[in-house]
Every structure is written in C-alpha cells, then in structure tokens.
Amino acid sequence: MTDLKELYEAILKGNHNAALEVTKAALAENIQPKVLIDDYLIKAMEEIGRRFEQHKVFVPELLMAGRAMKMSLSLIQPLLKGENTSLMLGTVVIGTVKGDLHDIGKNLVGSMFEGCGFKVVDLGVDVDAEKFIGAVRENNASIVGLSALLTTTMPYMKSVIKALQDAGLRDKVKVMVGGAPVSEGFAREIGADGYSDSANSAVVKAKELLGVA
Fold first, then answer.
1. CA-CA 20 to 30 A from 3: which of 31, 41, 117, 123?
2. Contact 23, 78 (CB under 8 A)
3. Over 80: is that where the pLDDT of 28 sits?
C-alpha cells in the first residue's frame, strides 16, 4: 500500500522523480484523483507557500515544489475528463503585460494557483490586451492576473482593464494585479479587484474574490 505522505513530502522537497513514482503507484491502486489533489498536492503547495511567506524557503524551493506538483498533476489530469471543471476552483488567465519580459514572479503565482486547485492559462510575457481578452473568452476565465516588474509597463494594466470593459467582459471576470512596483493603492486607482505581493497571498485573495475561501 502506497504511503501517500511520501507524495506530500516529495512536493515539499521539490523531488519531482519521487512525486511521479508515488503518484503512479497511487493511481495503480485506484486511489481517487480528487483525494490526491485535495489532500496531498494542494496541501503541500499551501505549506510551501506558508514557508515562503515566513522566509523559511526561497524562490528556488518554491519553483522546485511547483515543478514536482506539475509532474504529479500531469499523470492525474488525463483521468479527470468530464469531472475536471468540478474539481477546479476556477480558471485563471495570467500574463506579464505588454512591454515587460519578466516572468519569475508570474511563474511562481501560476504554480501556486495550479497547486491549490485552479486551472491556469499562462499567456507568458509581453502580453497585449487583445490576447488577454481572447484567452478570457476562450477559457471562460474567472480571474485575470496581470503582472509587471517595470514601472514603465504598469500603466498598461489599466489599458487591459479598459479593454475588458469595452469587450463587455469586465463584469464577468475579476482582475488581480501584482509585481514588485505594484501596490494596493495602484490597484484601486486602475480599477482592479485585487492585489497581492506574493504567490501565497494571491491564491488567498483569488479565493476570497470568488467566494471559495
């Protein structure tokens, strides 16, 4: 019988090979995918997020945990056909806005969202408003996450929000913003629904905005 605590530990330690092996063994024993996601993957990512907030681990450890979680999830997701939407908390479209090529922060946030039960559509870097709008429509997204690391690209966040309004999508999707130069005050000023300064708090805020906290 597979010890599922090993899956939790493998993700915490960022050991993607161990995460794969334990996941394979658990699925071979017909352990339900929802159990693996809810009780082990999500809990491990929540714990690594807490440790990151407390400065007990740092960016490399968080990225390694995210990679291990994704490896495990890659085996589980094909088994979720037809029930995928019921297992996921919502769809998040994320991207670094036009003119900005930084992606480490965005990648951390994406890993945390995915690990905590959201479907993530990552548009990458240098993303214009039209691409955000297309992804929101195509994926019926609940949240749009806009990232910027340059003060010169921050104003484009407001352009994306206006474009969502013009497209008739603003009342259907929550907009969250983040990045080193971004603040709570700036988020309010441009009409965003939420702001976070870390990957862990982004997930907490998203759940709050969607009423699934």
1. 117
2. no
3. yes
